[in-house]
Each structure stands twice: as C-alpha cells, then as structure tokens.
Amino acid sequence: VRLEFRTFPEASGGLLAPRPVVDVALEDLEAAPIACLLDTGAVRTRMSREFGDLAGIDLTGTITETVPVGGDRTTCAYAPVVLTVTDGGDEHSWDAPVWFCDPWPYGFGLLGLEGFLHHFRVTLSAYEEYVEVVPESAWALVAAPGPCRAPSDTR
Amino acid sequence: MRSVTVAGKQFQLTERAIEQWVAVRGDEVLVAAPAPRHVVAWLAEHGQQAQSVFRVPDSEQSIGGAAAL
What we know:
The complex is a heterodimer of chains A (155) and B (69). Chain A has 155 residues and is mainly β.
C-alpha cells in the first residue's frame, strides 16, 4: 500500500507541511476510514474515543491509562480491534491493540509501534512525500528470513 | 478557498470547513460537519464511501506536539 503525504490548509491561506498520514478503517466503519498520522515515536496507537463508540466497541471495564497528549491529559481505554488499510487496490486487515482517548485534541489518530508499526514494513520518503506499508508476514514470503509472526497478526 | 491534498488529489475547502470534520473521496469533499458522528451518519444515510475522514486543522500547532507514548 503506497500513500502520498497529506497536506492540510493553514489558517493564513497557505499549506501546512506534508505529513505521512494513513487512512485506517476501524472495524465496521469501512465507509469512514480515519486519517491517522504515522508516529514512529509513539508506542501506542491512539484515536478519539468517539470513533470507538461509533464502531460499537465496548470499552466498559477495560484497561485504561491517563497520559499527556498535546499538552493536556487524556484517559485512554484499550481494546483489541480489527483495522484495515487500503490504497484503493491492495487492502490489508490486522488485529490491533488500540487506545481510545477522551478528550482527544487531534483531528486524526496516531499510529504507533503497537497496533501498526509492529505489523508493517514501512518505507517513508519525506523527500518524495510518500509512505509505503507492506505487511510483515507478506514481506517475509518474498524477502530474506526474518522474525516469524503469528498467523493472527494479519488477515 | 483553501485546499487539502489527499493521496495526490487536491480538494477545495470553503472557509467554514476549517476546524470541521470532513469526509473526502476522489476530488470532492463529501460532507463537512462539527463531529465525526455527523460525518459517519451522513455517509451511512447516503450510502457513500469516503477515502478519508479527518478534522481540518487551523494551524501547524494543532497538529504538532503529539503524544510520545
């Protein structure tokens, strides 16, 4: 799956710096893939709790943690979910640990090590402004031997 | 009008779309609304498939400073 960097408008009328954004469908919300910023510095994958509620994910009684995000503190609830990424041609789904946070200051999700980067071989070119993600298990079929992944990691 | 580029396609946004949640597909903005639930409801009601859903930021600061955890 190869995706061009995302540029957003600036309030002054210009454009913000292009960023590596991956659109991810959460469970049955296939019609509304959520824009997620690729964050190689983040351990967790996080998004607004509102999307978890919209997807019908039961977050009652699950593990929670309170963390600083964007200068504020937010409470995030954990749930194992199915995420799907596509570029219109290739499509990949995988089981992902995701933390649904409230409040959530961003207009996008964050894709971290757990939930995303553990599952994909990522090529990122800021110069050419694209990001390419290949499932690790698929990569292992055509590349040199690497760490094995459980079958449940990709579907 | 301002623009946003998604997957190499440039979308034109009206001023009132800033800070709104939008759903985009192809070269069009399907819907702009105050909250994700409004966008998801609109997509379901109209049987539409979005390429991407996000809130249009008003500044670089509203994107930066993401969590380090």
